[in-house]
Amino acid sequence: MPPTLLITGATGFLGQYLIAAARKSWRVAGTFHRTRREDAARLLAGVDSGRIDLTDFRDVREMLDAVRPSAVIHTAALADPTYCEQHPDESLRVNLQATVNLAGLCGDRNIPFVFTSTDLVFDGTRAPYAEDSPVSSLNLYGEHKALAEQAALDRYDEAAICRMPLLFGFSFNGRIPFFQRMATEFQAGQTMALFADELRTPVSGPVAAAGLLLVAASGMEDESVNPRESERVRGLLHLGGRKRISRYEMGALILEILGLPPFLAQPISFRDVPAVAARPADVSLDSSRAYALGFDPPPIGQQIARLLGRQQEKAKGTNEEEQEEAEQ
Ligand SMILES: NC(=O)c1ccc[n+]([C@@H]2O[C@H](COP(=O)([O-])OP(=O)(O)OC[C@H]3O[C@@H](n4cnc5c(N)ncnc54)[C@H](OP(=O)(O)O)[C@@H]3O)[C@@H](O)[C@H]2O)c1
What we know:
By secondary structure, this protein is of the alpha/beta class. It has helices at about 15-20, 35-45, 55-65, 80-85, 90-110, 140-155, 180-185, 205-215, 245-260, 290, 300-315, 320-325; strands at about 5-10, 25-30, 50, 70-75, 115-120, 160-165, 165-170, 190-195, 200, 205, 235-240, 245, 265-270. It has a domain at about 5-175 and about 200-240 and about 285-300: NAD(P)-binding Rossmann-like Domain (Rossmann fold). NADP nicotinamide-adenine-dinucleotide phosphate binds near residues 35, 94 and 118. The site of NADP nicotinamide-adenine-dinucleotide phosphate has 26 residues, from helix 1, strand 2 and strand 5.
């Protein structure tokens, strides 16, 4: 029997990619919150799943007792900085309190707990940021995530805190991520204005999932999930890509790969667009610690080409499982 991995936020963008990657070697359990039951059944087909509000401590404890996971990857969050700015109390409950509770409950059970934090804990003035760079977020979302990082480690010093960069890919939960919007609009011959002066170190959903699974499996004796027999990863870890790049440059890469005219991507400055949640200029991550542990993001053009190739295969109706195999 393979070990059980519990993924919170399984209906989310990252949760979906994690499930696709994890089910090859783990028994997977996943949680969702507001997704309609019939949509959750479609998104989480074949996964032991349940609805839960992670801010309810007793429900979370009961769920852990019932699922008895060997490891937990916590992706559930309020991940939209604008929403968090407008709903600070809810952001505190979900992004901070629920995370700390879950960390403590995993600590009580001595199981690996992997928390997905964000590059937005930094203010964007001193990139690239290493794990020991001081945090100082420009917005409430980043501030609450930074508080959650520290509080989770205080509750459970074996926790792994993975700071994720900008993630890109396709989503099947009805919320269209920026990469999907770019690909769709370009393919329809439409122009898109994209920030040319906001720099990140993005990775695709499948690459982020591979990194998180590496961390979740570290220290486990079961070779089917930890073939490298790597030691347990604890503390802060950056899971960024190798290239510092803007959304405008990503748009240009998409156009090149699709053989479409470059003018469809139009550069603009983030400073010219009013934002509810302040945006940092450059939160590129230095991820050398993760690379030394075996996290190995391919060149970004390759990651983009794989995603677009998969989308085209899907449009042609190729078997889904073959696509998932082809992806990593
Ligand atoms: N996407 C990015 O570019 C990015 C970049 C850096 C870091 N991250 C981090 O990566 C993680 C995943 O992000 P994402 O983009 O996948 O987020 P997402 O698509 O917005 O998904 C969030 C998930 O959290 C669940 N959730 C929200 N509130 C909940 C609650 N009170 N109780 C239980 N579940 C709840 C949602 O469930 P329902 O949908 O069913 O309500 C959904 O499954 C987050 O920790 C985020 O901060 C993301």
